[in-house]
Amino acid sequence: MAEFMPLRDAIAANLKDGDSVAMEGFTHLIPYAAGHEVIRQGQKDLTLIRMTPDIIYDQIVGMGQARKLVFSWAGNPGVGSLHRVREEIEAGRLAIEEHSHAAMANAFEAGAANLPFAVFRGYKGVDLPKVNSNIRSVTCPYTGEVLATVPAVRPDVAIIHALKADREGNVMLEGIVGVQKEAVLAAKRSVVTVEEIVDDFGPRSANAVILPAWTVTAIVKVPGGAHPSYAQGYYKRDNAFYIAWDKIARDKAVFLKWMEENVLSSGPESFAAHARHFAVAAE
User: Fold this and answer.
1) For FRET with 273, which of 107, 114, 193, 255 sits at 20 to 30 Å CA-CA?
2) Which residues contact 83 (CB under 8 A, 6 or more apart)?
3) 3-state class percentages of the chain: helix first, strand second, coil last, to nearest 5
4) Which DSSP symbol is given to 230?
5) CA of 156: how far to CAs of 19, 34, 159, in Å?
6) CA torsion, points 239, 194, 44, 72, in degrees to nearest 10?
7) Model-level pTM?
8) Backbone angles phi, psi at 158, to 5 degrees
9) 3-class SS at 268?
10) Is the peptide bond before 228 cis (omega within 30 degrees of 0)?
11) Residues 202-241: pLDDT tens digits?
């Protein structure tokens, strides 16, 4: 059952050197505060899994904590390359396993269902299978159709940010959701940061996702914990930061100085100020 705890304790208890970790969130609810705690604690030799690695993985990779990246698209959304990730790949220090979005989504689904691999229609007429030996095929025993397969994603740890948790440890996400649900269900352990803890979730949208308490390992209240991404109904996306990151990350010395001042010398409480600054008006 889910346990409420401080962020430092939640990360220390659930993420170890050599683990595979999925920090999910599709444009919305990206778990930056939790990612910064991973950087402060310095876990090494991590396999980073994410459909769309963006700035948070650029930061973790740039700090030398990752050995492999499993992904389906990597970049600074709307801006360009992830310069720290690119440098590590080009230097041969970061292994990569690249997939399509469809493959990653199906791989998470297979992991959540406790299946060994995912089967789907895809990878026809493309070159990724030539450079990724984990992309294979199987012939349907009923129709004879050749289908693509990829290994299930089964992370040691899933880390996500959500809107709310109730006092029983259930978690709610709504708005744009990616594969957060599947990542948590596929993982051995999970850490969920939330904007607030409530007695009752109240009215919710048609696409709301509820994660039962028994699927979650640790819950941490971190207002603003998705900044510079956004949390629907709480605060807007900090577009200026994404633009500024391009210059920060291009130069390793500038990057390290920024990380020292804004991550290593800071804490999760700093995210609350971002939430207030970018807060959206209550409806």
Assistant:
1) 255
2) 58, 246, 249, 250, 255
3) 35, 25, 40
4) B
5) 6, 16, 10
6) -50
7) 0.96
8) -110, 135
9) helix
10) yes
11) 998 989 999 999 999 999 999 999 999 999 999 999 999 9
Taking a C-beta distance cutoff of 8 angstroms, is the pair 23, 159 a contact?
Answer: yes
C-alpha to C-alpha distance for 150 and 123, rounded to whole angstroms: 11
- Which of these, 210, 213, 219, lies nearest to 174 by C-alpha position? 210
Phi first, then psi, for residue 105 (nearest 5°) are -60, -45
Quick: pLDDT tens for 245-260.
999 999 999 999 999 9
DSSP H/E element including 85: helix 83-90
Helix (H/G/I), strand (E/B), else coil: 180: helix
Task: Give the span between the Cα atoms of 51 and 33, in whole angstroms.
Answer: 19
Return the residue matching tokens 């991590």.
Answer: 46
Q: What CA–CA distance (Å, rounded) separates 197 from 222?
A: 10
Instruction: Look up residue 145 and give its two tokens.
Output: 């159709």
- At 190 the three-state DSSP class reads strand
pLDDT tens-digit map of 13-40: 999 999 999 999 999 999 999 999 999 9
Burial degree of 5 (CB within 10 A; 0-12, 13-18, 19+): middle
Q: How far is CA 219 from the centre of its chain?
A: 16
Query: What are the distances in angstroms from CA 178 to CA 25, 102, 209, 235?
Result: 6, 12, 11, 19
Q: Which residues contact 202 (CB under 8 A, 6 or more apart)?
A: none
Tokens of 43: 């876990």
What's the one-letter identity of residue 234?
A: Y
Q: Look at residue 282 in the predicted model and tell me its pLDDT.
A: 56
Neighbours of 149 (CB within 10 A): 21
- The span from the CA of 103 to the CA of 80, in Å, is 23
**Could you tell me which of 68, 72, 76 has the C-alpha nearest to residue 96?**
68
